[in-house]
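Lesson 9: reading folded outputs for more than one chain in a single document. The general rule is that every protein is listed as its sequence immediately followed by its structure tokens, and records are never interleaved. Here is the first one.
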Amino acid sequence: MGEGEWVPAQRRDHGEVSTLLAALGRIWVRGADVDWAVLLPGAMPEDVPTYAFQHERYWLTATAADATTIGLLTSEHPLLLGESSMADTGAAVFTGTVSLRTHPWLADHVIGGRPILPGTALLDLALHAGHRVDLPDVEELTLHAPLPLGDRLVALQVTVGPAHDDRRRPIAVHSRPGGPDANLTTLDWTCHATGVLTRSAAAPAAMDLTDWPPRDAIAVTVDYERLISHGYGYGPAFRGLRQVWRRDKEIFAEVALPVDAGTFGLHPALLDAALHAAIVSAAVEDSPAVTRLPFSWNGVHLAAVGAGALRVRLSLDSEDAMAIVVADDTGGPVLTARSLVSRTVAIASSEPDTSDALFHTNWQPLPFGTPEGILWPQLSEVEGDAPAVIRLDVPRPELAVSEAVRMVTGEILTAVQAFLADDRFETSRLVVVTRNAHAPGTAADVVSAAVWGLLRSAQTENPGRLLLVDLDEDPRSAAVLTAAVRAAVVAGEDQLILRAGEASVPRLQRVDRSGLLDVPGGVWRLGVGEVGVLEGLVLEGVEVV
């Protein structure tokens, strides 16, 4: 203790015992000897930190990358952190998270002014899951809904069905809002893709791309600014297209990955850039408000992983479908896809974030050419080679409604199943014609409406095979049926209504929520297809009009 330093053992308005102990402690830490055993009989000495902020943690520290701490196997995929299997069924589950904070390169994939997870990433998730369950090929993968991205964490879940078949298992990709505030009572899962995994007996034959660049092909200018006018806002990570050539219905491209390849099987940005070749080389300009997005992958085989540069061949089967062959920069096989079907979506590039908005169906006019009087043959009349378009009229029996619905839906279901199962009709489109299935302001025909409900489900399982057409009683509609159907087939539509000789096709339109919802005790005007929320609204005391 320093010379001349005083330590008070008593202080006014302080307890005598506590003041004395504090004084002894003070002179002890300054080097004086204090016999604590005499002062505090039975007390045991205890080591103290050597400096003021030294401490030891006793809580377990779990990181997202260490899935084993929560009972999962660690996944090597950049978007999937853990994997497991269900004890009772053997189904496989892969989990992970994604956001623009955790994967900032995804901010460069912008469609209609909004970052979304590319369809190539959903394919890569399926290929990874297939590899882990020893079914490495994607027989089919249909994309149902885009996955918008932001700074908030999104939870991913990839599920592979039970192993009842050693060569085929179903797969699904879902997401929900993540973060610490999520819990089991508020999970709101969205299905983004469903499909089937398989294991081919042998890898599909790939076109030889070692002879490069392709002979007799015409160079096409790569212009990403043109894509912006079509609603594609590709940033640096997705601008991997280097050169493009076209030869008849074949498109060739060179692609290089602007970012690190990571541990993806085939980096989504690299494969997505390969698909840009079909857009920049399109012979016919689409409307600037129309965007084409992947809809269905078929027969996909991944032969090699980790490629950073590609040679690509796209074979156009139609405006909406193409076969894909991908090789590395030496011509070695990387990936083949028997078919990729795309769909056009109307997206305004200036549209704000609408992830929490309400939507309803808005029927938009479909222009068509000069009416033609020749109708396509009925399904029951087709013999021999099948035409490109076949007609099936829905009957209108004079029966009680319940009996008519049962009889007609049964007949239509049998006819459609036979059409889809017949190899002769593999490239044909079946046009199912109803009357007054949609009748705004009047009573719809219940039988026709039931047929639409039935076949809308069939359309999701068989894209591009069925076209639903609804007529009114106006003779002008029947007169232009052939011309309107031809326009709908060319445009890739799957629904068409004719009213007073005018054709319309459905589009989703955002609902202006102002003044429509005020709960409890408010009013929500519901349109067709929105009645699923009626029960919950009535329980909250909402007036439904």
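And here is the second record, again sequence then tokens.
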Amino acid sequence: MKLAVADKYDSIIQKSDLVSRDLSWLTFNDRVLDQSKKSHRSIFEKLKFLAITASNLDEFFMIRVGSLYNYLDYEKERVDYSGLREEPFKAKLMSECQIFHQDQHEHFTQVILPEMQSEHITLGNISKLSEAEKEKVHQYFQKVIYPMLTPMVYDGYRTFPILMNKLLVFGVVTTSPGDRKDMRKLSFVQIPANIPRFFEIERENSLFLIPIEEVIRENIISLFRNVEIAGISLFRITRNGDFTLEESEDMDANFLEEVKRKLMERKTGRVVRIEIEEGYSKWMLNSLLERWNLKMDSVFLVKRSSMLDFTGLWQVVGNKRFKERLPQVHPSVKPLSYQDEGTVEIFEALKEKDILLHQPYNNIDPILDLIDSAADDPDVMAIKMTIYRLAKDSRITKSLLRAAENGKHVSVLFEVKARFDEENNIREAKKLQKAGCFVIYGISNLKTHTKLLLIVKRDGSEITRFVHLGSGNYNEDTARLYTDIGLMTTNEVIANDVSEFFNVITGHSMPSQYQNLITAPRDMRNQLIEYIEKEAENARNGLPSGIFIKVNSLEDSESIYALYRASQSGVTIKLIIRGICCLRPQRPGLSENIEVISIVGDFLEHSRIYHFHNNGATRTYAGSADMMVRSFDKRLESLFKIEAPLLEKQLMNIISYNLRDNVNSYVMQEDGSYLPKKPAEGESEFNIHKEFFELDPEEVSKVRLVN
């Protein structure tokens, strides 16, 4: 019966011209899990990618499944791109999540654990320890863990306790001696988040790891004196973390308090998933399902041979003992447009020519140096920038604080709605505000996602504006892990556009047009569709045409149907979409001229590049925006046009290299699935995450995307 239902849903899904956003995301996490299965990777890399899939899935349940429950719980209508309504779509989605969950755990037990063992890393329980080691663990429990544990009973006299999101929890069923079976009570013991996931025992040539839940399980009787324990169940819940700040007439006055209130609600949000270890108490689970209004398809069973919460594996990856075993970071190379500058000061270099950064192949230092220099330079009058996600110990915050102390005007838009970074952003923003910076906490119902920096400097009797525009955050940590594009320039046209855009962000200005920028929410979708339609017109007229787009996600249906129309007109369209792709490529009569690849590997592909052939008068843009409804309608975004020929060639070469990659690439099929791209017979491996470190300037200058 279940198979018949699944087949019925699949046939509906395949009829749709669009791929479900959520089902597409699950295939992306499949590709991340596939990285953990690559035979050439070390065990530590495999653990890293497995941990990433777990944190990805946590966020997916908190946000996407949480959003689905917002429709289900309040009986709002929702039709997915797949063509399915709320309940059928939930059934399909949970079925796919269950399959992925099973794949994760089979990989862990069948591949990861044996490989850890071969590296002399053992994951085990207390029974495998010597008497001296057992005593060491017992002392750790008594002195460190026991004082932190708080059993919370639920019965007719006490309210149901608040169980926290993503914590491991023991559900303990107890009875008093002589009580009837129906007198049983349920208690919960939450494992605090600040206790290390594993207790580590170092032996001469090996490391023995005991999951913290096993330490507590062994000693849990000490929390329940003079009662009988009828069952112990280890589980973990995920709560709805999706919220939208409501529009308010006095948003400015109450904005921070509204964010704080919503953050508190996350802690008590609706439960959307239960992960539970086998051997659980059926009575306890049924009680939880009834209380949280969940069905068994939201329950994910974990075998005792596996473990709950793979995000804990970061402790193994980060162990100092294995530091030398992790992939070493490549030395960054100088930007092509900055090759001959030597020790020329950054301000002087930018007066001569634009600089294009391609991180992490070029490091983030030129941006940090620019802000550092601006903070101390007596001729710098003002610094304006947008901040979305900062590093934990941000050099940028320190520079901005110093600039304010030096009497410069500093304006910073801190986007406090940056998901899961809200608290850090609020904290950093308040530091700057106390130092005298002009701080804006986001803009009402729009999320500011654009990445802009403007520095105003007095040069004798003239004023020069130094600008940085990028696709990535001003974050030193992620700049080593994410591929991003950044333009540094003193171009007056761009500087005027950026100044105007800051006036929109910080004040009440609506410029009639920008010369270089394409901005959202005003005109980005329409402008990009206009460029797509121009390529279609050229193709129909027998002129050369081509569309090449590299983004994180493609979900906006208006843009997708514009691409379909261009494909039907004969335009060659090549898309590099790392994550969600709702476009269905290679469908006869619809998208035969569209190819889609996804690149997943050592670095997270975060760049956004849009290239239109335009009959040889090429248009090439980069920036912060994906092709998503939220990017076009609900965010302040910007794309900037690359004018300098060498810099445009660099972006075209990034596209070209991406399309040549045969190590990290997956080719999207018409049914929404992906197949790994492998070297053809006689072809060498081409791995962009290595090739960009060995970039040949001569090759860049000759790049062509349309012959």
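What the second record shows: The chain has 20 helices and 27 strands.
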